[in-house]
Design a protein that fits this description.
719 residues, alpha+beta, Rossmann fold, Methionyl-trna Synthetase, domain 2, Isoleucyl-tRNA Synthetase, Domain 1, 5 domains, six-stranded antiparallel sheet, five-stranded parallel sheet, 21 helices, 28 strands
Length: 719
């Protein structure tokens, strides 16, 4: 058996505009984290992507800007490629679908399916035609009302509000995006991929992971929303239907058949083939065989995408690969949900959101701006449900995680090492094996989460490892031991252990913080990490050996993450406040909230009085349980109260909660909560309340739910 390889792909972004933060969180940052981890573990991995440079979206943008499609794709290919590089997105190859190699690869795919017979068929049909412009309209040239959600601006191939896949004929009140006129139907002919022939094996492969008697993937590792969306397509009653793969356009890859002038391959046929052509170009440039990564059964193919691309990557492209023959199918498609921005969807037309290159420009004076963004997006990644990017959370993730936890620990270790050991690694007297065993356990758990595409959980383990070091350092207090006896063995022991933890942290941080991790290694006297270094480190710790050998020198201390909430330096806070003030210009009156600046709210939090200490026995009296709100309605005669029905798993309860001024009843149905389940029942406004919902309150009085993870069951005890 040959060595296992990994081929990782990320959705090809359209080269018709700049990419926003939602794109980064959806398909590129998670893939980069995963690929960087695989490299650190010494795996053979290739990560390909590239610009999708065909289709109606390109020509629409070109017409709007009054330039040629070629100028559009050159402009945005360069912008997006450079922006990815500046953010540390480490593709092995970033290709272009306008490249001759891609054209040849896509045309070969089409011709092979024609030659095999039965996979493609030519059909005549009526399609929308713009009489003013004198051309047939591609799906993206048509806009109308979505039949599912009544969005008046749905495209002919997809509604971007509800995510439904559409055909132009399904739209109500269609209009041409070229002229604005109502299009007419005219007959034309196109080639259709016989997707209907592939439904049975696709269903079996997605549900069980099996194909032709072989186990190709573990269906238990696929996200529920991915499998659910696929099965909804496969089991919708009509089943899969033949799908047109050509269009009447003058921009794209020409259909390689006589008499097919004026017709091109549909962008959703040619775009995923871009993964293959990108791999081919990488292989040519690096002296490799591209087929080792596409046709070797020991290679794992993994697609990183957003939820709007699930069907294309789990049904249509796998069917294309199997129809062609000889290609691997994906072992996983860890599609993310959508990232919103301050409570609303990203919208270029409405000026709502932030593009990646804009962030880099506006945060150019912000220390470690790239890693600060990567971390905030990771901690709030929409892995299983839509999430929301908020500047307040950005500040919290930066100051609490990166500055107070990780940065503080590394800085203290380096400073104390210079103070007590002249910047050297001391010889331990009998290293505190318990702490290093615990550190190894956290690193192994971190590794397991990344293997399973659980990036938020892995990031949490990184913070737990840093917290372990901080707590150990504080509990041991080598500065206090120094006052007792400068030769106290506990000083040597503590600093040695903390230095080993810091070295491990630098490796675990690398997939998430690729700009900071090398700085930490430099502070510890180490060169940048190389492929396989994390695997070596885990093996080294398992043997109870040193990551940093005693006697080796470390660098001078430096602050890795200057805090945003710094009373003596408000420059970073001012950058955040400028971003927040920009948004207010685009808010509707009812969206605007009278919130004081971050600095004011933070100072109020800092002056909050802490309640008196309680004993563990006091806390143990509380019975805290996970629950879900199943119904909510106002309490008559009480402006502030809502009557809630909550599901505890083992029983249903009624709870009266004073949250009516903060939440609309219909908006909190399905909300996960933590309930004080053993609070004595109490009648409020005639309703017997059987518990209390836990809430968090900020300095302005704004409430938010204390929520367990979305996949937590009801009735679990919170300890």
């Amino acid at each position: 058996m040959s060595e296992q390889k990994y081929l990782v792909t990320s959705a090809l972004p359209y080269a018709n505009g700049a990419l926003h933060l939602g794109h980064l969180a959806g398909a590129y940052l998670p893939a980069d984290i995963y690929v960087r981890y695989l490299r650190l573990m010494g795996r053979d991995v290739v990560w390909v992507c590239g610009s999708d440079e065909h289709g109606a979206a390109i020509t629409i943008r070109a017409k709007k800007e009054g330039i040629s499609p070629q100028e559009i794709i050159d402009k945005y290919h360069t912008l997006n490629k450079e922006t990815f590089e500046r953010l540390g997105i480490s593709f092995d190859y970033y290709h272009r679908t306008s490249a001759p190699l891609h054209h040849a690869t896509a045309q070969d795919f089409f011709k092979k399916l024609i030659d095999k017979g039965g996979e493609l068929e030519e059909r005549s049909s009526e399609q929308y035609y713009d009489e003013e412009y004198g051309q047939f309209l591609a799906d993206r040239y048509i806009m109308g009302e979505c039949p599912n959600c009544a969005n008046p601006e749905a495209y002919g191939d997809q509604c971007e509000r509800c995510g439904a896949t559409l055909s132009p004929m399904e739209l109500k009140n269609p209009k041409s995006m070229m002229s604005g006129a109502t299009p007419v139907l005219r007959e034309t002919s196109h080639w259709y991929f016989r997707l209907d022939k592939h439904g049975d094996w696709l269903r079996e492969w997605i549900k069980t992971g099996k194909l032709d008697g072989q186990q190709l993937h573990d269906p238990q590792t696929w996200k529920k929303q991915v499998v659910g969306q696929c099965l909804s397509w496969l089991d919708d009653g009509e089943g899969l239907q033949p799908r047109s793969i050509t269009r009447d356009l003058d921009w794209g890859i020409p259909v390689p058949l006589p008499g097919a002038e004026g017709k091109v391959l549909y962008v959703w046929f040619d775009a995923p083939i871009g993964y293959i052509s990108s791999t081919k170009q990488w292989a040519l440039d690096n002296g490799k065989n591209w087929e080792d990564y596409w046709k070797n059964p020991d290679t794992q193919l993994i697609h990183f995408i957003g939820k709007d691309n699930i069907v294309f990557h789990c049904i249509i492209f796998p069917a294309m690969l199997r129809a062609y023959g000889g290609y691997n199918l994906p072992v996983n498609v860890p599609a993310n949900q959508f990232l919103n921005f301050e409570g609303e969807k990203f919208s270029k037309s409405k000026g709502w959101g932030l593009e990646q290159h804009e962030y880099l420009e506006e945060f150019k004076d912000f220390p470690n701006a790239e890693d600060a963004l990567r971390w905030a997006l990771t901690r709030n990644m929409p892995e299983s449900s839509d999430s929301d990017f908020k500047w307040d959370l950005f500040v919290d993730f930066h100051d609490k995680d990166l500055a107070d936890n990780l940065g503080n620990f590394v800085n203290r270790v380096v400073v104390l090492s210079h103070k007590y050991f002249d910047g050297a690694i001391p010889e331990p007297t009998g290293a505190d094996r318990d702490k290093l065993v615990e550190a190894l356990r956290l690193a192994q758990a971190f590794s397991g989460e990344l293997e399973a595409f659980n990036f938020k959980n892995a990031a949490q383990y990184l913070m737990e490892l840093s917290s372990l070091g901080n707590t150990y350092l504080q509990d041991t207090s080598p500065w206090a031991l120094w006052k007792q006896d400068p030769q106290h063995p506990g000083i040597r022991e503590c600093l040695y252990v903390c230095q080993q933890i810091a070295a491990l942290l630098a490796l675990l941080a690398d997939p998430f913080l690729p700009f900071t991790a090398p700085r930490i290694r430099r502070l510890l006297g180490q060169p940048p990490a190389v492929n396989g270094e994390l695997k070596t480190a885990l093996d080294t710790l398992a043997r109870n050996e040193s990551l940093l050998p005693p006697g080796s020198a470390i660098g001078q201390p430096e602050v890795l993450f200057p805090k945003i909430m710094d009373r003596n330096d408000k420059s970073r806070l001012e950058i955040i406040e400028r971003q927040k003030s920009k948004l207010s210009a685009f808010m509707l009156p009812e969206q605007k909230m009278e919130q004081p600046p971050l600095e004011t709210r933070n100072s109020k939090l800092e002056t909050t009085e802490v309640k008196p200490d309680i004993t563990y026995e006091d806390f143990a009296k509380l019975d805290l349980r996970t629950a879900t709100i199943t119904a909510a309605e106002p309490v008559k005669g009480a402006d502030k109260l809502l009557q809630l029905n909550v599901d505890l798993g083992y029983e249903q309860r009624t709870v009266v909660s004073g949250i009516a001024l903060h939440f609309k009843p219909e908006a909190i149905i399905g909300q996960k909560v933590v309930l004080v389940a053993n609070l004595a029942p109490r009648k409020l406004r005639g309703v017997m309340s059987q518990g209390m919902i836990l809430m968090a309150e900020d300095a302005t009085g704004k409430l938010s739910f204390v929520s367990p993870p979305a996949d937590a069951g009801n009735g679990l005890e919170v300890k």
